[in-house]
Amino acid sequence: MYVKIDSGLKVHWITQVKDSGYFELSRRGKKAFTKGFTAPSRVHSFDISNKLKQDLVLKFGGKNEGLYEVVLKKHENDLKTVYKNVSSIYVVGDVHGRYPELINLLQKSKVIDEDLSWIAGESHLVFLGDLFDRGAQVTKVLWFIYGLEEQAKYVGGKVHLVLGNHEIMTMTKDLRYLNAKEKNIAIGHKVTYDQMFHPQNSLLGLWLSGKPSVLKIDQFIFAHGGIVDLGTFTLNSFNEAVSYYMKDPMYLELTQEFPDSTKYDVERWYRMRDFFYYENGPYWYRGYVLQDTLDVQLDAMLKKYKSKVHIVAHTTRKTITSKYDGKLLTTDLDDAATELLLIKRKRKSAETFKIDSEGVVSPLE
C-alpha cells in the first residue's frame, strides 16, 4: 500500500488477483464516513479531500480476497531520544525486506503472537535501521512495524525505529540495491520508488522522517553504524537536525553528482551531504566492528553521552557478538533477521542474550 498526502489523501493498494477493490474509512470507534468499490483490476486507489488531522481507520482489499485494516496515524515526530527504567529490550539489526524471517523471529522470541499482535507487554523493541533494499518485502515490513508500534504503545510498550543508511539512500534516490519486486510495486502505483517514501508527500515517508537516528535506553546507546562524535553536545540535538534537514527540498537531491547552484546554496548542499553520507557518521561507520583497537575512541564516546554499552548494526557478523569487554554489541547478521538481542535489566546491572529463529535463548558471551 502507498498513501500519498498533500491537500488530502490518495490511497493505493494492489490485490493478488484481478478483483473489485473495496475500502472504507472511519474515525476511531465511529461508523465509516466513506466507503466504496473500485473497478476490477489488480491496482486500486481512491481519493479523499480530508487532511489527516486525526487518526483514521482504513479497511481495504479485494471484494473476494478479504480486507486488511490499518490505522492511518496523524503525524507526530517521535524524536524522544532518552528512555529510562526499561525492564526488557529486544533489538533487531538489519532486516532488508525479509518479512517471513522477521515474523518468525519475533514470534519465536514471544514479541508477537500467531496473529501478529504485540504480546511483549511493557518491553521495548528496537529496529536498528536498514529495513530497506535487497529483500522482496520491504513495504510489507514497513507497514507491519507501523501497525505494531500502535499496538505496543496501547499496553505501555514501545517500538523504536532507528534510521539506517538504506533509509537515507532510498529517500535520497539511491536505489542501487532495490529488489525487482519492490520496484514493480512502485510501477503499479505509477510513481518512482523513492516517491513512495517522500519525507513530506507520503505517509510512510513522513513517518520515517520523524524517527531518531540515535537512541539511548538506560545505559545503552544505539546507532545503525556507530557513533564516533556526532558533533553535537546531546543526542537529541542530532535527531532534531536530521528531522530539520529532511524537510528541506535539497535533501532529496543529495545523491546527485554535483549540486544545482541555480536552486540551492552550494556550501549548504555539501554540508548536508556530508551530514548524511560522511563515512564516519552514525549511518555508515564500521570501525568498532571491524577493528579491535579503538578502546580509547569508544570509551570517549560512551563518556560523552553518559552510556556504558554501544549497540550497532550495519556490519555483518555470523552471529550477535560482544566486543571490547562487553562495551560494544553487534546485531547485523550474514543471514538477516535470524537472531535478535535481548537485554534484561536486573537492578543496576543487565543480562544480555541472543534468541535465534528456533526460539533458542543463549547468554551473550
Helix fraction bin = 10-25%
Which consecutive residue ranges, at least 5 long each, have pLDDT under 50? none
> Which structural class do you get from the secondary structure elements?
alpha/beta
Q: Going by CATH, what is the homologous superfamily of the largest domain?
A: Metallo-dependent phosphatases
Question: How many helical stretches?
Answer: 9
Indicate the CATH architecture of the largest domain. Answer: 4-Layer Sandwich
The oligomeric status of these chains comes to single chain
The global form is globular
Largest sheet: 6 strands, mixed
CATH fold-type name of the largest domain = Purple Acid Phosphatase, chain A, domain 2
Q: Please report which band the strand proportion falls in: under 5%, 5-15%, 15-25%, 25-35%, 35-45% or over 45%.
A: 25-35%
Give the topology string: H per helix, E per strand: EEEEEEEEEHEHEHHHEEHHHHEEEEEE
Compute the separation of the termini in Å.
42 Å
Average pLDDT level = 95
Specify Rg, calculated over alpha carbons.
Answer: 21 Å
The domain count comes to 2
Q: Give the strand order, joined by hyphens, for the main sheet.
A: 8-12-13-14-16-15
Topology, number of strands: 19
Per CATH, the class of the largest domain reads Alpha Beta
